[in-house]
Write a structure and sequence with these properties.
Structural class: alpha+beta
Strand content: 25-35%
Number of helices: 12
Largest sheet: 7 strands, mixed
Number of strands: 20
Helix content: 25-40%
Distance between the termini: 97 Å
Shape: flat
Length: about 475
């Protein structure tokens, strides 16, 4: 590919970082609009070399498609795609052990995979709209649907070298001014790459691996700058230093306060965050004497300086339970809002899904339980988000039984988002939204179009039934007589 078998790299991490940095330096004006893409094949698989792009050239969608097409035509059809949320060239120079400090590299497994592969291709500058289309391009060329996986699911899957497969592994990325958190997350992503490579090797299955991202990671950093503040920064410059990071955090905190934005509820098991919850509004109502009495739980749950009581919350790999404890809610001295979640492997889709099994209200020894598993679910590595979660208007929550105390309650969550598994860096993963494809507007358009097609079809049918006269009056012959009888 980009480096032939005769060009063996002695220090792959430093070489890769400097290689990517060189392209970044030659085209600095648009470095925040590009993502790198790395492609390699399994050990023992050799394909012809592809010419890398010229220095400073940005690979667009059409050119990327030709690269992928040639790689798949000559290489294995089992494709492993590591799709990171964000990534930029600077991630390799900052965390990849550049200039010989290999002990600081967070990519040992990626380096080992590149070292063992005789066919590899490095594209330092791919336009991020093109990288967004990678899954679609691979799907079209392989003529198979993508399978979103994790290492645990892959170990239970048996692949066939003769049948194409597209395995997608979503990888997170840390956002913000905390340098160490981003480094730890990238190191964890590299461990996932290593686990997947080990599993594929144990199955003796040839593969083509691709590592890229949906959008550039430096985009968030550039957007966080003050309005009107110009200038850039050097390639390996540390992001501001301690004082600059503290000023940035303070500025972001003030911006959030002015905008009324607050952070999610966060439950930690030890030092690891395992449950996140956010909502624009949390409210409950109870029916008393024919009237609905409402209480807003939002001020006691979210906001600057608010620390909700979470005792009773638990989490592990298969089950998660978030308990929000309140006092004096609608006349009840003790009141709990509980979210119970679980995840398991569904063999039909070959991936793990999590469901919100129940939303429970516990008050003064009484429990009202709503079932949410039928409508509220998402892939285990994603979060779940919905504009409105209620039990009364387009309900996603339903009472357990007709005699359950939940029939006397109404719960309403607006802009609701929750994640109980695979939480990283105290931030929500990619959100699986509850909005269906067929909105009311789409249904109106489809029905109207159908009616118009029916009217047009009926009109054409009537026109086709018209018959012309087959007999005409001859002026030279006898007149046509039509007898009339009474």
């Amino acid at each position: 590919m980009a480096t032939t078998g005769t060009m063996h790299l002695q220090r792959i991490s430093a070489s890769l970082a400097v290689f990517l940095a060189l392209f970044s330096f030659l085209n600095p004006a648009k470095c925040d609009e590009q993502v790198p893409l790395i492609l390699w094949t399994s050990e023992g698989v050799s394909t012809s070399t592809q010419s890398p792009p010229a220095a400073g050239h940005i690979v667009e969608e059409q050119q990327l498609s030709s690269y992928l097409e040639k790689a798949l035509n000559e290489g294995p059809k089992n494709v492993v795609l590591f799709l990171q949320d964000k990534m930029s060239i600077e991630d390799f120079t900052m965390y990849g052990g550049a200039f010989g400090n290999k002990q600081d590299s967070v990519y040992p497994n990626l380096e080992a995979a590149l070292m063992s592969s005789s066919s590899r291709l490095v594209l330092p500058a791919v336009s991020w709209p093109a990288s967004n289309a990678v899954i679609g391009q691979l799907q079209d060329q392989l003529e198979t649907s993508p399978l979103y996986m994790d290492p645990e699911t892959l170990s239970q899957l048996r692949l066939n070298a003769s049948s194409p497969a597209l395995l997608v592994f979503r990888l997170p990325y840390g956002i913000g001014a905390d340098l160490m958190s981003a480094k730890e997350i990238l190191s964890g992503n590299d461990e996932v790459i290593g686990q997947v490579m080990s599993i594929m090797k144990s199955q003796s299955l040839p593969y083509t691996a691709i590592y890229t991202a949906l959008r550039p990671s430096r985009e968030a950093a550039s957007l966080s700058m003050e309005a009107g503040q110009g200038g850039g920064r050097s390639l390996l410059q540390y992001r501001g230093g301690y004082k600059d990071r503290e000023r940035e955090r303070e500025r972001q905190r003030k911006v959030k306060e002015r905008a009324g934005i607050y952070g999610p509820v966060e439950f930690k098991e030890g030092d690891q965050t395992c449950i996140l919850l956010w909502a624009k509004s949390l409210s409950v109502k109870i029916l008393r004497s024919g009237q609905w009495e409402e209480h807003d739980l939002t001020p006691s749950t979210f906001g600057e300086g608010v620390s909700p009581k979470l005792h009773g919350s638990t989490c592990d790999k298969t089950k998660a339970r978030l308990v929000l404890n309140y006092e004096n809610v609608l006349g009840h001295r003790s009141f709990k809002l509980i979210f119970a979640m679980s995840q398991r492997l569904y063999r039909v889709s070959a991936r793990r899904w999590f469901t919100l099994d129940a939303v429970e209200l516990e008050y003064d020894g009484t429990k009202a339980s709503f079932n949410g598993s039928r409508h509220i679910y998402a892939p285990a590595e994603y979060s779940y988000r919905c504009e409105s979660v209620t039990n009364f208007r387009w309900p996603l929550l339903t009472p357990r039984t007709s005699k359950d105390p939940s029939n006397q309650w109404r719960v309403s969550f607006e802009d609701f988002q929750i994640q109980g598994f695979n939480v990283s860096s105290s931030e929500f993963s990619y959100a699986s939204d509850c909005a269906g494809f067929f909105s009311p507007g789409i249904w109106m358009g489809l029905i109207t179009s159908l009616l118009m097609v029916l009217v047009l079809t009926y009109g054409l049918h009537m026109i086709m039934q018209l018959r012309t006269m087959d007999r005409f009056d001859d002026p030279k012959g006898p007149a046509i007589s039509v007898p009339q009888t009474e």
